[in-house]
Known about the structure:
0% helix, mainly beta
Amino acid sequence: MQLHQFPGGPAIGPVLRNGTPLIVLYGHRILDGLVWVEVRDADGRIGWMPQIYMITITPPATSTNTITTTPSLI
């Protein structure tokens, strides 16, 4: 699969291999019954691809860092 300039538009960049990590951006469009999603690849290219080719992984809610402070006695 390749990234496209816009939904249904010309392909940009090299063919993406299965398992290529992508960052999902905010754009979503429907064209000819396909949901297209705006994504960014590791090289910074921004493009569109059909959502049916994607597996979305969401980090767990517990992945945030917590900082705890302890008052010191002087």
